[in-house]
């Protein structure tokens, strides 16, 4: 009996030591983290497509100290300098020219910041990610109908202010619509979907969050590793502020020598851009 007691006691002591070591490692990792910037690239690719463009571009700025996450969207028609081409063009074309690397390089030039991490998803992957968490609850901010992933018109209809449970297909339709308003409103809707996903995952507990990370890693193309995420897990156990913003600017039609014609572009406001740069570099 004494031997059994000693063995049990030793096992308990070992478990306590391991738990303390694990907690110590966790707190050390949290203490070593700074702010994090992740570029989120949504591409308009479907199976069989050889050339794609970025349909949406965002920077997720995570401020660990202030417990804030800010999503900053850049409209796809933004007129920016594309380093790989050595000229100005729509930022959506950076992906067609240079893929992920070309897009990251362009975003780095635009925001004067090195972006080490990215997440890339296409239409199909977006549907899978939303479905992997059992869908999302979202209250539309506009009334409209949109085609489905097979381009069938009017497949999904939304009413402003009426909360709905969205599966992956519906969430994709909601986030890709821009015909009734503009790309700026579409960018805001894309942020709404991401915010709803984060809220759903945050409420699923540690195992739910870990499961979602595995889904992101397996479904999307990303270089954000688990060890990096571990340093920010402290935010998952506290309330944090989630903010959203879309680039400010104005519409313009400019003659482009490269294309030999006048084209529509979105010209970002310099004051807004400088403020965004300061936010991202903080």
UniProtKB/TrEMBL annotation:
<keyword id="KW-0812">Transmembrane</keyword>
<feature type="transmembrane region" description="Helical">
    <location>
        <begin position="7"/>
        <end position="26"/>
    </location>
</feature>
<feature type="domain" description="Cell envelope-related transcriptional attenuator">
    <location>
        <begin position="53"/>
        <end position="202"/>
    </location>
</feature>
<comment type="similarity">
    <text>Belongs to the LytR/CpsA/Psr (LCP) family.</text>
</comment>
<dbReference type="InterPro" id="IPR050922">
    <property type="entry name" value="LytR/CpsA/Psr_CW_biosynth"/>
</dbReference>
<dbReference type="InterPro" id="IPR004474">
    <property type="entry name" value="LytR_CpsA_psr"/>
</dbReference>
<keyword id="KW-1133">Transmembrane helix</keyword>
<dbReference type="Pfam" id="PF03816">
    <property type="entry name" value="LytR_cpsA_psr"/>
</dbReference>
<keyword id="KW-0472">Membrane</keyword>
<protein>
    <submittedName>
        <fullName>LCP family protein required for cell wall assembly</fullName>
    </submittedName>
</protein>
């Amino acid at each position: 009996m004494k031997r059994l007691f000693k063995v049990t006691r030793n096992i308990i002591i070992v478990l306590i030591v391991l738990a303390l070591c694990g907690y110590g490692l966790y707190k050390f990792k949290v203490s070593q983290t700074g702010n994090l910037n992740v570029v989120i690239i949504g591409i308009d690719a479907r199976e069989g497509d050889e050339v794609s463009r970025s349909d949406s571009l965002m920077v997720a700025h995570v401020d660990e100290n202030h417990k804030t996450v800010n999503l900053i969207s850049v409209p796809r028609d933004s007129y920016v300098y594309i380093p790989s081409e050595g000229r100005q063009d729509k930022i959506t074309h950076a992906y067609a020219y240079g893929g992920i690397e070309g897009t990251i390089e362009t975003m780095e030039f635009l925001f004067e910041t090195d972006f080490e991490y990215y997440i890339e998803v296409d239409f199909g992957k977006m549907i899978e990610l939303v479905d992997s968490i059992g869908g999302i609850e979202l209250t539309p901010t506009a009334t409209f109908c949109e085609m489905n992933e097979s381009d069938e018109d009017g497949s999904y209809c939304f009413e402003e202010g009426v909360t709905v449970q969205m599966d992956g297909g519906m969430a994709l339709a909601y986030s890709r619509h821009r015909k009734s308003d503009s790309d700026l409103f579409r960018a805001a809707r894309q942020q709404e979907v991401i915010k709803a996903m984060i809220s759903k995952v945050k409420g699923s507990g540690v195992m739910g969050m870990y499961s979602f990370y595995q889904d992101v890693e397996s479904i999307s193309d990303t270089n954000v590793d688990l060890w990096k995420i571990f340093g920010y897990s402290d935010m998952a156990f506290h309330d944090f502020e989630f903010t959203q913003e879309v680039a400010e600017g104005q519409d313009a039609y400019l003659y482009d020598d490269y294309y030999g014609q006048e084209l529509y572009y979105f010209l970002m406001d310099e004051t807004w851009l400088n403020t965004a740069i300061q936010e991202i570099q903080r």
